[in-house]
From TrEMBL:
Annotated HTH luxR-type domain residues: 143-214
Domain of life: Bacteria
Sequence positions bearing 4-aspartylphosphate: 52
Domain Response regulatory as annotated: residue spans: 2-122
PROSITE patterns, alphabetized: HTH_LUXR_2 (PS50043), RESPONSE_REGULATORY (PS50110)
Record-given protein name: Response regulator
One Pfam match: Response_reg
Swiss-Prot/TrEMBL keywords: DNA-binding, Phosphoprotein, Transcription, Transcription regulation
Length: 214
């Protein structure tokens, strides 16, 4: 994969470059400030962009704004956003509109190399990767609604779906059969009033995210 990285912390930036290149990917551009990002993305048109949310000069939401601007110019550009903390507003804005090829991870997740690379590849392939802590925050925000009717197992399935995992991964994580996962998903969709499709996984994840962000 061809990757563009935007991160102002030099140590983390170089660490990402080393991690990605040693994993067989090509880092075609790096940025340390918000204004550098869009020109870099338009020039290189990478397979995926890894962007910090807060960058100079304002350290507010420069990375996110650049990601949204880039997706207006390059609608199919996969973007994986990194953040130091769970910031629900940023996550909801990035995931709004049913966009595909998006991810939102906490920076701590980068240290878990396999998880980070899996999330990056999933986003680059047009899927979603949402940090478990972000999913928990979004679910906690929804109160007095059909989420309350879900069993603990169904809530666990919903959380794993929202993170972007397929049935096989969910089954292995929960130590159950894929058939059991399929049944749980059917129950979740029924209770939440979501489309009952279970093909490919991408549409169902977007449906879940749309529900959690409603």
């Amino acid at each position: 994969m061809r990757v563009v990285i935007a991160e102002d912390n030099a140590l983390l930036r170089e660490g990402l470059v080393l991690l990605l290149t040693s994993s067989g990917h090509e880092v075609v551009g790096v940025a340390a400030t918000g204004p550098e990002i869009l020109p870099l993305l338009l020039e290189h048109r990478p397979d995926v962009a890894v962007l910090d949310v807060r960058l100079p000069p304002g350290f507010r939401d420069e990375g996110l704004r650049a990601a949204l601007a880039a997706r207006e110019r390059l609608p199919e550009l996969p973007v994986l956003v990194l953040s130091q903390y769970v910031e629900e507003t940023y996550a909801a804005e990035l995931l709004g509109g049913g966009a595909r090829g998006v991810g939102y991870l906490l920076k701590d997740r980068v240290g878990r190399v396999d998880e980070f690379l899996d999330a990056l590849e999933r986003v680059a392939a047009g899927g979603t990767a949402l940090d478990p802590e972000v999913v928990t925050e979004l679910m906690a925000r929804r109160r007095d609604d059909p989420l309350d009717s879900l069993t603990p197992r169904e809530r666990e399935v919903l959380e794993l779906m929202a993170q972007g995992h397929d049935n096989g991964t969910i089954a292995r994580s929960m130590v159950v059969t894929e058939r059991a996962v399929h049944k749980h998903i059917g129950n979740v969709f029924l209770k939440l009033g979501l489309p009952p499709t279970d093909s490919g996984g991408h549409r169902r994840v977007l449906a879940v995210l749309a529900y959690l962000n409603a």
